[in-house]
Amino acid sequence: MALSGAMTVMESDLRRIARQARDAQAAGRRRRAAALWSRILSETPQDRRGEPYFEEASAYTPEFGRILVANPRRRIYLAGCGRSGTWYAFGIMGTFAGTYLAPEERHFGHFATIAGESQPVHIVKRIHYSHQFLPALPRPIGLLYVLRDPRDVLTSVHNGTEYYISLDRWSLEMKALRTLLDAGRPNMLTVRFEDLVLQPRQEQVRIGEAFGLEIAGDPTAFHQNFRVNEFIERAMHGLRSPDPSVVGRWCRNPEHVEYIRRLMPAITDTFQPLADRFGYDLARDV
């Protein structure tokens, strides 16, 4: 779908949401927003309260829809389990024309905060607990989901921590993805990390066609103009061109192989439907 056509659909849906919100009782809206805000404050450690959580509370109020309608943009939320290459995919999104990449991981409520940015395409990258709220992502907001071989995810090192992503955390992420796919969530594209690394140009074309984006740069050189803080650069093991050696890395480390063998029954139970759908061979060993 062309960008103009996609934005027309989005604006129509958002106007409908805003119209329904105006018809609702104001007192009821305030009660729901207050209840959500109270829950967030009670469940959030003191040092983690602030703008991101205010954005989350605001995302479920009518004002959120009104802000987006008043500032028509093409909006894409980029999600995926940790250590699945979401930062890499985020960098590639900067190779499309007219994109604004929000510099921090945030809830989709952040789209209202950045609504005034002039670029026609706004992209926000998922926060660590995004699997909990992805079903609530408004359909006019596109969803780009990055999927990676679970054996590489579960053995990925992050800031010196081995096995950074636990089996439980990964399982919850995959169950959320399966829920979205089973529901036939529109305006959504799932890309494999392995394809982004091994055939970045083809995947760039796929993404552009799915969301009506115009290619403006070389995906293999995304890092030349991609600016992140030191913490994120460490998480990416440095800004560089796609590195094919990261694909299947788990099977080149004997300790990781043994670790994965112990987890395979649980991995298979959770992931087999996704493996069948997206072409992962869970029977392959070393």
TrEMBL record:
Top-level taxon of the source organism: Bacteria
The protein, known as: Sulfotransferase domain-containing protein
Organism: Pseudaminobacter soli (ex Zhang et al. 2022)
